[in-house]
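#structure-requests
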Amino acid sequence: MAESPQPSESKPSANKISLSRRSIVYSLAALLLAGHLIDIVFFTEHWPFSRYPMYSRLMSEPKLTKVRVYGVTDDGEVPLTAEPHFPPLTMSRLSAVVSRMGEYRNDSTKMSAAMGNLATIYERARRAGKHDGPKLKFLRVYAVSWTLKPWADNIEQPDKRVLLVEAQCSEG
């Protein structure tokens, strides 16, 4: 019976990874993990690390609360949206701006400046013909709450509105 030939020298293993390559991979994994942990611990958002806040809250009841801007005219209140009332802001940016204004509630100077900027943006767009909204006397920011219903039947009638800030619009 013929024996199979024995290799004279052993071949390097295909599974063997060099120490330097392994160190690079472990360092990158540690960097990614550290970045995620920092954002989780300090409640911050830095791309590509995230604590994924959209998915981190459990809804205990079917309620939605948003911050909304309203204009006050001689005829009453008018809900205002980013497009077309506050160009170049999009709705998500306008929501972020007015939500952030909550940080200024105890600083009347910053709050007045922020509301004045919103009023100026609105009035410039109105005068430029970008929207046909009425001339405003006041701007109001409300926290508006809805009980979520199928088909959003109650979108035009929020359950609750809480006035956060009101500012008079300048004349002229």
